[in-house]
Design a protein that fits this description.
Elements: E1 18-32, E2 40-50, E3 52-65, E4 70-83, E5 86-99, E6 102-109, E7 115-116, E8 122-130, E9 133-141
Antiparallel strand pairs: 1-2, 1-9, 2-3, 3-4, 4-5, 5-6, 5-7, 6-8, 8-9
Length: about 150
Amino acid sequence: MRWMTGALLMMGAMPAGAAEATGQFNVQLTPLPAAPGGIGQYRLDKQFSGDLVASSGGLMLSGGDPAKGAAGYVAMELVTGRLAGRSGGFALQHSGTMSGDGQHLQIVIVPGSGTGALASISGTMTIRISGKDHFYTMRYELPAAP
């Protein structure tokens, strides 16, 4: 399923202490048995490169008719790896829709989900798709390293 080339509308200037990470990722979607009501379910596996060197696994649910340009999805994935020289993990929560009015995608770092040296991380991520290539930009905040 191909999703979202847009950006988070609420992202503007970065607050003091914020940082930005960019790079590419590969994604594999594995279909799972449909949920009640015909909701599509997929296993989500990603490999990130660039400023975030990590892998992730998660679950995606989708509904609607993407072939007609009207659909939505939600996903939760757990990212584990290295960011800014720190090892740990965090969860990403996705919410996306597409309709005749366009596409909207919001991806946030789940508050309280940070582990290891990435504990207390907060922020957002945007995704850009060009052909078969996937790119990310993550704006985040981390407390100073101990």
